[in-house]
Amino acid sequence: MYNLLKGKKGIIFGALDENSIAWKTAERVHEEGGEFVLTNAPVALRMGQINALAEKTGSQVIPADATSLEDLENLVEKSMEILGGKIDFVLHSIGMSINVRKGNHYTSQNYDWTQKGTDISAMSFHKVMQTLYKKEAMNQWGSIVALTYMAAQRVFPDYNDMADNKAYLESIARSFGYFFGKEKTVRVNTISQSPTPTTAGSGVKGFDGFLAYADKMAPLGNASALDCANYTVAMFSDLTRMVTLQNLFHDGGFSNTGVSDDVMEAFVKGLE
Ligand code: NAI
């Protein structure tokens, strides 16, 4: 432990259960001395185990549907009250596609579901930032991070409409990050994480194969949820003050690997 976040206050979205990337992040932020409010959609609070995490990290939980501006306004105001001041870090760790969940193919979407998924997975990031921005809720040199996946840049057929949502999310990080940087000296980045066995991750069709393939392809193997939590801690810390508007690949080198010996070997074996 390095006390990297001592004295810093934040909001962490998306801890559903102990597999969630946000759950691991909350644990690591706590270990590094940061204080925070935990939040999730009301329905997720009923289903998940967030109270155990709150107890462990000495945090309060405020329900908020990230698509509701009213909920977000309440969340930001209450968080500042609870934490006794402005916010230094925010983690947006939210994603959901109803088309994926209901098994609709990318070429056969129900557009009401597409719209809902976009609202939850991407536009919610704009709503979170706009609420923080308008309420002057962020401290100077604060850091806002959202989690994304490489399907925003390259085709992964079963990632479905989440690929489009992630592309939109990453664009919002750049566009809003410009204004947050210029006007409030706050940085905004996305972390593009390896496939990770969580509730959201496992919803992707053929996830196990996907996970094993990425692991064999990446020179360092897949980054775990805990690795992602550590990277996010670094992004919240003062050690990364000049990093903003970036999509940061956190994937053991997968994104820059054309093919690996392991994958080629398995492929050739399959041909025999
Ligand atoms: P998770 O299922 O544990 O977390 C997703 C969270 O989104 C849940 O806590 C859920 O309650 C929350 N959520 C859904 N609808 C919401 C709403 N309307 N308002 C507020 N919260 C809502 O899964 P995971 O994997 O930890 O997901 C976190 C982020 O990481 C997501 O953005 C996901 O796309 C991203 N990611 C995940 C990868 C994976 O393979 N698991 C890979 C790369 C990125």
TrEMBL record:
The keyword Oxidoreductase applies. One of its GO terms (biological process) is fatty acid biosynthetic process. Pfam families: adh_short_C2 (PF13561). InterPro entries: Enoyl-ACP_Rdtase_NADH, NAD(P)-bd_dom_sf, SDR_fam. The active site is at Y149, Y159. Coiled coil: none annotated. Pathway: Lipid metabolism; fatty acid biosynthesis. Keywords: Fatty acid biosynthesis, Fatty acid metabolism, Lipid biosynthesis, Lipid metabolism, NAD, Oxidoreductase. GO terms for molecular function: enoyl-[acyl-carrier-protein] reductase (NADH) activity. The keyword Lipid biosynthesis applies. NAD(+) binds at G14, S20, I21, I94, K166. Its EC number is 1.3.1.9. It catalyses: a 2,3-saturated acyl-[ACP] + NAD(+) = a (2E)-enoyl-[ACP] + NADH + H(+). Belongs to the short-chain dehydrogenases/reductases (SDR) family. FabI subfamily. This is Enoyl-[acyl-carrier-protein] reductase [NADH]. It comes from Oceanihabitans sediminis. The lineage of its organism: Bacteria, Pseudomonadati, Bacteroidota, Flavobacteriia, Flavobacteriales.
